[in-house]
Design goal:
The structure is a single chain. By secondary structure, this protein is an all-alpha fold. It has 2 domains: 94 residues, no CATH class; 39 residues, no CATH class. The chain is built from 6 helices and no strands. It is globular, with a radius of gyration of 18 Å.
């Protein structure tokens, strides 16, 4: 039997749910302001996360979080907010089959950022994969 790393299982789950996000989001913004749609989505995510933390007993004292971690998480939240606002507006204006591939250019951008800011090594496979993802996203968006 194929043994999958835990991160791979969650990454595949993320991909499936991201695909559902595009389809359900496109349907959801058909007759509502995209910013209001993002707020509703965010509230649902907030409630789900509180539920998971509570059910799994994973709450931690906030004063135990380092200022660096807190700053990075706040900035990540700001980036997520802008990403979602842009994504839902793009879904409202364009076809999901073109918006989602362009959104997935984030994969290639993450490769560049990881090399530049996290000092992660760039292998030929990773570079080629980033180029192919970019080419595929552009091809699908045309």
């Amino acid at each position: 039997m194929l043994s999958l790393n835990h991160w791979l299982v969650f990454a595949l789950g993320s991909a499936v749910f991201a695909a559902l996000t595009a389809i359900l989001g496109k349907l959801g913004v058909s007759d509502i302001n995209s910013n209001l749609a993002t707020l509703i989505r965010t509230l649902v995510i907030l409630l789900m996360t509180v539920g998971f933390l509570t059910l799994r007993g994973e709450w931690q004292p906030l004063n135990k979080i380092s200022s660096f971690s807190a700053t990075m998480l706040v900035l990540s939240g700001v980036a997520t907010g802008f990403s979602w606002l842009c994504y839902y507006r793009a879904l409202q204006l364009g076809p999901a089959s073109k918006v989602a591939p362009i959104d997935k250019l984030s994969v290639a951008i993450v490769i560049v950022f990881a090399v530049l800011f996290l000092n992660e090594p760039l292998s030929w496979k990773m570079a080629l994969g980033g180029v192919l993802i970019t080419a595929g996203a552009v091809l699908l968006a045309l």
